[in-house]
Amino acid sequence: MSLVPTLTELPPARSAAAYATHAQARLDANAWNYVEASAGDGRTRQANRDAWDAMTLWPRVLQPLGGLDLTVELLGRTWPTPLLVAPMALQKLVHADGELATVLAAAAQGVGMVLSTQTSMPMQQVSQAVRDDVTRGPLWFQLYMQGGRAATLRLVRQAEAAGYEAIVLTVDASFRAPHAAFRLPAGVAAVHLPPPAHHDAGGLLAAAPTWDDVAWLLSETTLPLLLKGVLHPEDAREAVRSGVQGLIVSNHGGRNLDTAIASATALRAVADAVGGTLPLLVDGGLQRGTDVLKALALGASAVLIGRPVLHGLGTAGAAGAAHVLRLLRDELAIAMAQCGIRRPAAASRGLLAPESP
């Protein structure tokens, strides 16, 4: 695979969002429907986008901008950008190179990667491709609690041995309705999980993670533990008390619960609740560099980018995913300059116009 784009590989897309049309033209209906699936009528997914659009930036002028850079401090380390690829399952659905192409694209742009438990390529192969690259972003492993703690711990130990630097426990997927129109094609599978089995609602709910599971994971791994899927301020306060090292404000891209609060709206409330006591990240609907700056202004240390990366991957493999991430990087740098700041850490709510929700 190549990360060097050619005129025949990349479409004339001037924004990450523009890749959706190109990806839809290239993917079969099965893959496209899986990528684009949302709960119910899709209101949560639309609310995510609407919330970022409703906020307006308030530019500053005549500020010193020499030395502008995108580096951020996160979990005690300095990283090239405040961008990470969100954990997304079964990426070989959209391109044969799957998660390997995505992680190479991310590393080439100084962007982090959160690998899904439902990866379609071995976690060791993915990490080995970029682990020693000093210019990459964070390399984290997303975890779903399995049917028992022993199975969960096996995944954690594999992630530790493969060089992943944090565990991201997804806590908002207690029960999800199946995607009725989706069929797993031959040659694509979640390689670290047993074949899918039927589970009734009662069994799924009984296996949902609890605060006791969080305490157990903290006792079992020395890696930082972040919780993904926190939306309510009370849950955020409980997370601080639990001792986790970070939170990802997320509604699962609108795939779990329709009419749930938008991630951007929840971010403001969660940031107020934790008061800077631990790092916050956010995902859900971000597709422009200006969205990233708004998230930083609301209190996020970094953001996770989801569907736009898959759109780039499905359009042109690693080169397409890298182009999406480059567009976001460049747009963020331009937005920072226009708003008079040189570092992501300098973003504050003063960058948002008063009428912003």
How would you summarize the topology of this molecule?
Layout: H1 19-26, H2 29-36, H3 43-54, E1 72-74, E2 77-79, E3 83-85, H4 98-108, E4 112-115, H5 123-130, E5 139-143, H6 149-161, E6 167-170, H7 201-206, H8 211-220, E7 225-230, H9 233-242, E8 246-249, H10 263-274, E9 280-282, H11 289-298, E10 302-305, H12 307-338
Helix pairs in contact: 1-12, 4-5, 4-12, 9-10, 11-12
Domain FMN hydroxy acid dehydrogenase: 8-357
Binding site for FMN: 87-89, 116, 142, 170, 228, 250, 306-307
Active site: 252
Question: Any descriptors?
Answer:
single chain, 357 residues, alpha/beta, TIM Barrel, 8-stranded parallel beta barrel, two-stranded antiparallel sheet, 12 helices, 10 strands, globular
Commentary on this structure:
This protein has one domain (16-351): TIM Barrel, CATH 3.20.20. The strands form 2 sheets. Strands 3-4-5-6-7-8-9-10 form an 8-stranded parallel beta barrel, surrounded by 8 helices. It has helices at 19-26, 29-36, 43-54, 98-108, 123-130, 149-161, 201-206, 211-220, 233-242, 263-274, 289-298, 307-338; strands spanning 72-74, 77-79, 83-85, 112-115, 139-143, 167-170, 225-230, 246-249, 280-282, 302-305. The chain is 39% helix and 11% strand. It is α/β, with parallel strands linked by helices and 357 residues long. It comes from Caenimonas sedimenti.
